[in-house]
Design brief:
It is built from 7 helices and no strands. The chain is an all-alpha fold and about 160 residues long. The protein has 2 domains: about 80 residues, no CATH class; about 80 residues, no CATH class. The chain is flat.
Length: about 160
């Protein structure tokens, strides 16, 4: 946030501010996970289905808490010093896009939805020309689908019969 050297706007870009915000977000995500039915489902090996996701979120929270209390907690990285609101909008747009991707892949199916989302993502990340980005999205989708099938992991079929 250019030109801001005081108050909340300055604190939020320090390691301590980033750590605090990430801790709150991860805490909300942890609560969401713990309130979700599938997390508590028993597996045949005695583990719960959500064991590793929950452990992963807890470990991430420990790291973000460490950011709040370490010796560099008041430092501001160069990338965050000059961050603009437009960058935040891009992040929120990406999160909303991924939400729609998840919902549509459940409804329509992984094989049909994933290339549609991978194409613009690859294009934004620099894969040119657009035909190469589109082909790459389709090829990556088929490869990932095939690998998961070989491992015995079911992908969302949606409207497709396989």
């Amino acid at each position: 946030m250019p030109g801001s050297d005081h108050g909340f706007r300055r604190w939020v870009v320090t390691n301590q501010g980033v750590g605090a915000l990430l801790t709150v977000i991860l805490g909300a995500f942890l609560i969401h996970l713990l309130l979700t039915e599938w997390v508590h489902r028993d597996l045949r090996d005695g583990f719960k289905l959500g064991f590793f996701p929950v452990i992963g979120v807890i470990v991430m929270m420990l790291c973000t808490i460490a950011l709040m209390f370490d010796s560099r907690r008041r430092q501001i990285t160069d990338d965050l010093r000059d961050i603009e609101w437009k960058s935040w909008l891009y992040c929120f747009a990406a999160l909303i896009g991924w939400y729609f991707y998840f919902e549509l892949s459940q409804l329509i199916g992984f094989l049909l939805v994933t290339p549609v989302f991978l194409f613009p993502l690859m294009y934004v990340l620099g894969v040119r020309p657009w035909t190469t980005a589109a082909a790459s999205g389709a090829i990556v989708t088929v490869i990932v689908y095939g690998l998961f099938r070989m491992l015995g992991i079911a992908m969302t079929q949606g409207i497709l019969p396989f």
